[in-house]
Write a structure and sequence with these properties.
With 206 residues, the chain is an alpha/beta fold. The chain has 8 helices and 5 strands; from the N terminus they run E-E-E-H-E-H-E-H-H-H-H-H-H. A hairpin with a 5-residue loop joins strand 2 and strand 3 (20-24). The radius of gyration is 20 Å and the shape is globular.
Amino acid sequence: MVAVNFDEAGVCFASNDTEYQFLSFDLANAQIFELIKQLLENNDIEKVVYDAKFMMHLLNQYQITLNNFFDVSVASYILNATEKEINLETLAVQKGLPAECLAVDLLKLKQTALKELEQMNMLNLYYDLELKLVPVLYEMEVAGIKVDAETIKTLSQKYKQEELELTKQIYELAGEEFNIKSPKQLQEILFDKLKLQYKGKKSTSI
């Protein structure tokens, strides 16, 4: 496992809490780029990153593919769905980390996120749904789509009304109003209040 933090200037790697290396794109030669490519495309090595989709777009400029990754930003979103999106440095500070080397912080943030996801029974949601959506969304953004603006507007109005009606029905069934988009609050309503039985297998993979 290795943490990887990219910005427009270069890339920083960290394999533990004390050892890290920054490589500048301006100074990197063909041999260094090839080593970076081999590491990021290696399916046997997990890369801990923040905002993998952004990294995929950045790496695409260098014909590099990101394989086998843990996205801390996705885990953070699941755990704090109602909060405003933040960057890696802000998250590190919120978690009491020094933010001096963000690649090192990523390793610690991953372990914290895994513990919180497991405590809230959200490991399956992370690994089986949210994480798998990242490369799908990336490919959609790269490909792009053509749309009929008027049709989209009509459908938007239609589905907005349907959403309001369904939301009202959900509130009635739950007996209270809550943030449906929050996995945490949804879990509390379904499993703690309504006592629905969870039949899936709980993932423990890391």
